[in-house]
Structure formats: structure tokens, C-alpha cells
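Purpose: get a first structural picture of the assembly so the mutagenesis plan has something to point at.
Setup: two entries, given in the order below. No constraints added.
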Amino acid sequence: MIKIMYPKGKLVTKTGNEIMAEAMRQIEPDVVAAYPITPATEIMQIFSQFVSDGTVKTEYVAVESEHSAMSATIAASAAGARAMTGTSSQGLCLMWEMLYIASGLRLPVVMAEVNRALSAPINIHSDHSDTMGARDSGWIQIYSENSQEAYDNMIQAIRIAELAKLPTLVTTDGFIISHCMEVVEVYPDDDVKEFIGDYKPDRYLLDIKRPYTLGSITLQDYYFEHRYQLAKAMIDAKCIILDVAKSFKKKFGRKYDFYETYMLDDAEIAIIIMGSTSGTVKVVVDELREKGIKAGLLKIRIYRPFPVDQIAKDLAHLKVIAVMDRADSCSGSFAPLYLDIISSFYVSEILNVKIVNYIYGLGGREISTAHIFDIYKTLDKIALGLEKPFKQVEYVNLRKTNE
Amino acid sequence: MSKKKTKYYNTKSGASELAVGGIVESGTAIDFVTGGWRSERPIWEKEKCIHCLVCWISCPDSSIKIEQNKIKKTVVIGINYNHCKGCGICKSECPKGAITMVNERK
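Result (C-alpha cells, whole complex):
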């Protein structure tokens, strides 16, 4: 249950899309360019209403595709504007080429992204395949468990992006968060504006007194150094993300980190997960704790940059971990989050924890407390030595053969 | 246009010295000599030129040289062969036939 954490805050009932549009209204960027796509359409629909009502001074560009939406947002950002967009699924895929331009040119574009499955077959429901496809594009990725987090993450994303000079996307799970009503604490407009501050870029193209070339060609002699700058910026962003979270806590009272741990300190078995299903897992953890089973949860909030040098240390005391991915790499190997977690354990030289990988909920497939119970039951059996940890991806609630 | 030396990084510059986002100070094209790409050379005839500046505004490589004369009128003074790629647009656009294209080999 969401409670008032900021004395001047107030509780409202809104869907995930409504609250993201509300955050954008309060941020009031200079330019927004977007193209509609289910389930993110509403964000821009509501925001464009703010523009036509004169509630915000934002320049809204209705474009002909997501490729153009990202291009226009990049151009606006390069010109010196605070620029935002929003999309989902196939829309993010169509932006793919331009995502790399935004990060390569180090433009702090911020995007509201609603997680949805990828075609084919066509499906409008939630999984993380779309943003996982963009995980190597040099964008900071922030995942949200609920509408409150989506709202808080959007506000923090502006400051993170501008300090890190990296584009940043904030996600919600399609329909599960984007279309469900939840109670959210919102903060007054002025306080949000004060928190994000004015955007003052070092260099911008409309600065006609200091002209420069943007998007120049660099070949064998410079390209590698420029790409290293981007990789380094992603590492440096870790401190920035924590600093912004710290000042957010100081201002509005809610605590944020790379990840949230739930009943993890004394846990023996745990699930690592991202997005809305974390809430489902928390319910199961509570019930298991009542039965005396030491279950815990680690919920990833910041997926890019990945806290590789830290996360395994917080998990070192566990016996068995299930990493639950809502995307499949179709790689003949494992799913994305699992691979990152394994890297963290290996570089931290923690090799005595058994870690298994589940893929769940593709295309919005049901993931209920019963499924989570079963997973914890399996983890418990592995912990007791009754079962061996499986060495390939397990699929949750999938029909492999006729039942 | 005066030739200016633009700020360059050299191949000893490390990632920490290079400008963020691969930006480069403006005007670097001045130091990038593209005249060698030319197969046909435009010849400007001063006597036929009426200084309408159509060639100057049409040139994609800013290779028409201009200056202000004594009575503060902008006039064409020649062609910058360091950057002219020989596309011939100036020849096509000139209303007075003051520019002709000749083979570079001649």
C-alpha cells in the first residue's frame, strides 16, 4: 500500500500510462516527438492533450514513425532542448538504429517505455523482449515494479540522463502496470521542477557563437576511443544513479538503489526478477516466511548499467537462486539477466551458490503466486540436495506437450 | 573566407582527451582538400561575370571565392580549386555563360 512519504505529496489513483504522462507534464520538456503504439499510446495521447490545452509549453511533434520520433527527439536534444519520447515493442525496434545515435552522440534523451512482446506472432501483452533487445545500445535502463516507481523513476531519469550524458529509458510492464489503476503519491509541480532543475547543456547546436560539427565520421584511428568513452560513461553513471537516488530520498522520502532486496538478509533461497512480477514474488515470500521457509527476493531496478561488481556480494550467503527472465535470448545458451548475474558471481569469485534460470510470462502468459510457490519449492529441494540444479533454461507455465 | 587552422585531436589523443560524443570544432572541411577528386575544372571568365552570385549560392562545396570591393559590393574573384570537386553546377547555373568546364588533363 502506497503511503504519503512527502508532506506536500498527495495520493491519486492513476494507471501506469496516466502517471507517466503526469510525470512528463511536471517535467515539461522543451520537445516531445512520438508515434502511437499499444500499450504506450495513452502516454502520448494524454500528454498531447496537455500540450493542446496549454498546460505545458512543450513543442509536440507528431511524426510518421518511431524511427522519426527518435530522430526528432535526438535532433531536439542536440539543438539544446530537453527532449522526451515514449514507445513500446515494435516501436522500440523501429527506433533501434537511432537508439545508438542518441547514446553515441551522448544526448540525454529520456523515454517512457512500456514493455511488450515482439512479433512474430504478433502479441500486445507484456514481456521484456523489447528493452532486452536494446540492452547493448548504450541506454540506461530503469525498470519499475509499479506505478509509483514508474513516476519516481521518470523524475530521476531526467537528472540521471543529463548528468551522465546518456539517454535513459524507464519501463513499465505493458497492461499490468500501464493499464491498471493504482494509488500513487504525486508531488507538487514546483517541487518536481526544482528537483530536476533547468537543463544547461555544455554544447548545443543552437549556440551559434560556438558552432561545432556533430555526427562526424571517425574511422580506425578514433572510433574505438569514442566507443570506449561510451562504455566508460555507463560505468561512471553508476555513481550518478546512486547520487540522484540519494537526493531523491532526501527530497521526497522514497529510497531507491540499483536493486531492492526483500527479506534477503537471512534468506537461503531467493528469486531475482525485474518489473511487476516482483510484487507477486513478495506476496509469496511473505507466505513462505510464515511457514518458516527462508525465502527472499532481489528486484533489479537498474538493469543498464548493471551493478556487476556489487550484486553477487549481496547474494553470497544464499544456497540457491532462481533468476527469472521475462525474455528469451533464443541463443542456445541462457536468458539475459541470468548471464549478467553469473558474470557478477564469477568476477566476485563466489562460486558456491547454485543459480538456475527460468523464463516466464512471454507475451503476457500468466504468472501466478502458485507458479512462484513451485519455483521456491524447487529451490528448497535443490538446497536440501534432493534435486540437482538444472543446467538449461526452465520455462514456467509453458505447454511443451499435450496436457 | 580566410583559411584558419581548426582544432584537431591527433592519433595520440586518448579517450579521456577526446571531446564527448565525437564532436569536432566547426570548419574542419577547410583542412580537408577535396580538389583532387576533380575530373573537370571550371574556368571563370571575369569579363563575362555580372557578379549575381548564383554560382556562389549554388556551389555545394563553398568553392566560389568572393570578397567586398571598394564600393562595398560583393564580387566573385575566382574559384577555390583546393575544394572544388568539379561537379559543374556553377557552369549550369550561370546565366551569362561565364563558367566553362575543361578536362583536367588538358
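Confidence is low (pLDDT under 50) at residues 1-6 of chain B.
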